[in-house]
Design a protein that fits this description.
The chain folds into three domains: 3-84, Arc Repressor Mutant, subunit A, CATH 1.10.10; 92-168 and 270-298, D-Maltodextrin-Binding Protein, domain 2 (3-Layer(aba) Sandwich); 170-260, Periplasmic binding protein-like II (D-Maltodextrin-Binding Protein, domain 2, 3-Layer(aba) Sandwich). The chain contains twelve helices and twelve strands. It has helices at 8-20, 23-30, 34-48, 64-84, 106-110, 112-122, 137-142, 187-192, 207-214, 231-236, 246-252, 284-298, and strands at 53-56, 59-62, 97-102, 126-131, 148-151, 160-168, 170-175, 194-198, 220-225, 241-245, 258-260, 270-277. The strands form three sheets. A five-stranded mixed beta sheet has the order 4-3-5-12-6. A five-stranded mixed beta sheet has the order 9-8-10-7-11. A two-stranded antiparallel ribbon has the order 1-2. A hairpin with a 2-residue loop joins β1 (53-56) and β2. α1 crosses α2 (23-30) and α1 (8-20) packs across α4 (64-84). The protein is rod-shaped. It starts with 7 loop residues before the first helix and ends in a 12-residue tail after the last helix.
């Protein structure tokens, strides 16, 4: 039997008929007239090749075929109802799921501690896996490999959703008692210092080089690091200068002693954006999680899974 040629409404009508074994009661449940319900039963008898319900005095009883079909129809109708009913509200404390995030490792400092506290308090069964080495973030978002990415770019395909979650600016830091602190800082003096560059992608320049080049200056990058993690500790024990996002400097200030330079100019700031694919846009658990992530960043009061290289 081909399902394409069958009126699915008949299946819905068959359910109360078999359960109540009454045309009148079924008509009331279906919101139909008794005549229309009786007509539907006649069509069902032709379709299924069986009387389904027959008279037994003043009542009706199921035929063997009707009795056989009753639980199957009930299960089928229940399945259809599950298809069309809205998804259940998310219960964070019972949610068991792993979320996959792509971001540069500086968000391990800026986001992860507060996100971890929130998850332990609200959703202790939720796991998080972070990675900064996706080669094609957009394709990973399109697949099952990635739930969320943190990017700076706004040049995104139409199947991606995005919203700004944090604006950050750049600051430059040196160790306390650094000799450069004894004189007023100028861009020329700043350029003449030995610099650290954090470049997750391994590029040879960053926003500082662009800023200096616009003023006809250049700097010496003495050390290029792929990770933010060791940079503040290296600065605290050397004469290097490091330019990095203010959000990272705020966290680093709780771990090491340093001074922020009073700069005459600084590279332009940037807006960090949360990005996800259309396939996850209406998923209740995903929506809850991305709102939680957004709240953690906004609650900090600041302001490519990569910030620009510095």
């Amino acid at each position: 039997m081909q399902l394409q040629g069958i009126d699915s409404n008949l299946l819905v009508m068959l359910h109360p008929l078999l359960q109540t074994q009454s045309v009148a009661k079924s008509a009331k449940l279906l919101g139909m007239s008794a005549s229309a319900t009786s007509h539907a039963l006649a069509r069902l008898r032709i379709l299924l090749g069986d009387e389904l319900l027959v008279r037994a005095g003043r009542t009706m009883v199921q035929t063997p075929r009707g009795a056989y079909l009753a639980p199957l129809v009930a299960e089928a109708v229940a399945a259809l109802e599950r298809v069309i009913q809205p998804p259940d509200d998310v219960c964070p404390e019972k949610l068991e799921r792993t979320f996959y995030l792509a971001y540069a490792d500086y968000l391990d400092w800026v986001l992860l501690p507060s996100l971890d506290r929130a998850l332990r308090a609200q959703a202790p069964l939720v796991d998080v896996l972070t990675n900064s080495s996706y080669k094609n973030t957009i394709e990973e978002l399109r697949s099952d490999g990635l739930d969320l990415a943190f990017l700076v770019t706004t040049d995104l395909p139409p199947d991606m959703h995005t919203k700004p979650v944090m604006h950050d600016r750049f600051v430059s830091m040196v160790r306390k008692d650094h000799p450069c602190l004894q004189k007023r800082m100028t861009l020329k003096r700043f350029a003449d210092l030995e610099h650290l560059l954090i470049s997750p992608q391994g590029s040879s320049g960053g926003v500082v080089d662009t800023m200096l080049a616009e003023k006809g200056l250049s700097r010496r990058v003495a050390r290029t690091l792929s990770s933010f993690m060791p940079a503040p500790f290296l600065v605290a024990n050397s004469d290097y200068v490091l330019t990095l996002p203010k959000s990272v400097a705020d966290v680093a200030a709780t771990l090491v002693d340093f001074e922020l330079l009073n700069m005459p100019a600084a590279p332009p700031g940037y807006t960090l954006r949360l990005v996800w694919h259309q396939r996850m846009h209406h998923d209740p658990a995903h929506k809850w999680f991305r709102n939680l992530v957004t709240d953690q960043l906004k609650n900090r009061g600041s302001q490519h899974a990569q910030p620009p290289s510095s």
